[in-house]
Amino acid sequence: MVLRVARHTDNLDEIEKFYVQILGFERLGSFENHDNYDGIFIGKPDLDWHFEFTKSKTKANHIFDEDDVIVLYPKEILEYNHLIDNILRNNISTISSVNPYWNENGTMIQDPDGYRIVISSLKAK
User: Fold this and answer.
1) Which range of residues forms the domain containing residue 77?
2) Which of 24, 55, 64, 112 qualifies as a FRET site for 10, CA 20 to 30 Å off?
3) Rounded Cα–Cα distance for residues 64 and 49 (Å)
């Protein structure tokens, strides 16, 4: 099974920069004017999942709460440290989670649309 997480955005260029340059994913593909949608696929070629971000003339309507979180588990402590350093170098603010578990076991940030992402330190060795 392959998983695709699809989300509408008004900031396609900013989203791509964030997920590729900051978080280290790759642009796997894109499309333009497909039924009035432009989009990009972001992930890693060797994974069975990826993000799809789309933009259209319809404004994105983001509805989420503070417990809606994407959690990334770096496999190695060097990868975790690289991500955190990259976040800080790019002046991305860290935020506190309402769930204390993530404050103890990771670093929380927000993407350009305001969605929360945790970089977890749990799997990093």
Assistant:
1) 69-120
2) 24
3) 22
